[in-house]
Every structure is written in structure tokens, then in C-alpha cells.
Amino acid sequence: SEAMTNSTLNTASFTLVTTADGAARSGTVNVSGNTATFTPSVPLAASTQYTATIAAGVTDAAGNALAANYTWNFTTDAAPDTTPPTVSSTSPADGATGLALNSSASATFSEAMTNSTLTTASFTLQPTAGGATITGTVNVSGNTATFTRTAGLAGSTQYTATITTAAKDAAGNALAADYTWQFTTGAAPDTTPPTVSATSPAHAATGIALNSSLSA
Prior knowledge:
This protein has 216 residues and is mostly beta strands. The chain is built from no helices and 13 strands. It has strands at 14-18, 27-32, 35-40, 49-54, 70-75, 87-91, 96-99, 105-109, 123-127, 136-141, 144-149, 158-163, 179-185. The strands form four sheets. A four-stranded antiparallel β-sheet has the order 6-8-11-10, with no helix packed on it. The protein has a four-stranded mixed β-sheet with strand order 7-13-12-9, with no helix packed on it. The N and C termini lie far apart (109 Å). The mean pLDDT is 96.
């Protein structure tokens, strides 16, 4: 409430301990104006209650002492998330074969992701043997990102899906390494119309027996 005798505010009179066991935290005390600040030497533990105490006896500029110890408690936040996300499953599964040509590729992550980091730049699909990257869109629902191709895939072709380290979880942690998996499409469907390759009797034949059958 007023200017203090700075020399009376030190680590002996201004202390910080773990509330549960009274273990003291080391640090330094600095005074600026009417405010004394205790700065711990190392970061505090997560999800832990601490008790700060200013001892009776610290004096103001006129030499008047604090009438009694002043204490207050506070609790630290949970430890920050520093664990990189992982891909927990994919569809199609790695190594799958006989996939329909209209198949999409999706990956489910171990935790919530930052949706804006999952785009066609960080989630790609292309023929394993090489060639142009497949065009498409990426959508995220829950922990799952899905790449939907713009056009159908080629038949009997292996594709590689890749999610790069540009993909990050909600805390900003990136994948530890690019994640890739492969799948192979089935044969292309038969879209060729049939033709008649031969007939019996042949076209325009003459003198055919009256009991003849016809075949094509």
C-alpha cells in the first residue's frame, strides 16, 4: 500500500513453497515502486498448488513492520502439449489392393488437429511410379482428414498418399515426419461396346440349306 524498505524484501521474507509438502522454491526477489516480485529459478510444476508468503517484519520506508505474515495460494495450469500427433489409421489401409477408381484417401490422427494445416499442400496423392499429383480437396471432420479426388483414378495403378510435417495438432505440434501409405486400384471397368466378329451363314451368302441355323 506504500513504499517499502527494499532491503527487507528478500528470499528470506518473501518465499514460495509447494502447498502439499512445503518444499521451498528457489528464486530471486526484486522491488520496483510498491511492488515486490519473486521470480522462480526454474519453471513451476504443472497442475500444482503453491503458497506464497511475505513474512511479518518487512517494513515500510518509515520502519513500520507488516503486522502478520501475508499468504496466498495459486495453482498452475496443466503442462503444455508438446507431443507430436501421429496417424493412427488410414483408409484405404496401407498396401490395400483392388480399390474402386472413385476411392478417396483419409487419415485419422491421434488427437485434434489444426484444420487449416491440412490442405492439398500438406495432404497429397499421386501415382507411386511418378506423374502428376492428383487434384482434389481436403476436408476435416473430427480427427479425420479426407482427400477427395476431382476425377477418377487410373485402373491397376499404385498410388502414394502423403501427409507432410506441415500438418499440426491443436497445440501447434507438427507431425514428427512425413507419413505415407500406398494402395492399388483395381482393373479399369470394361467400357468397350461389343461387336459381331462373325456370322453363320456369312453376310450375303447364297444357296443356304433350308434347315440351316443362324449364329453370330
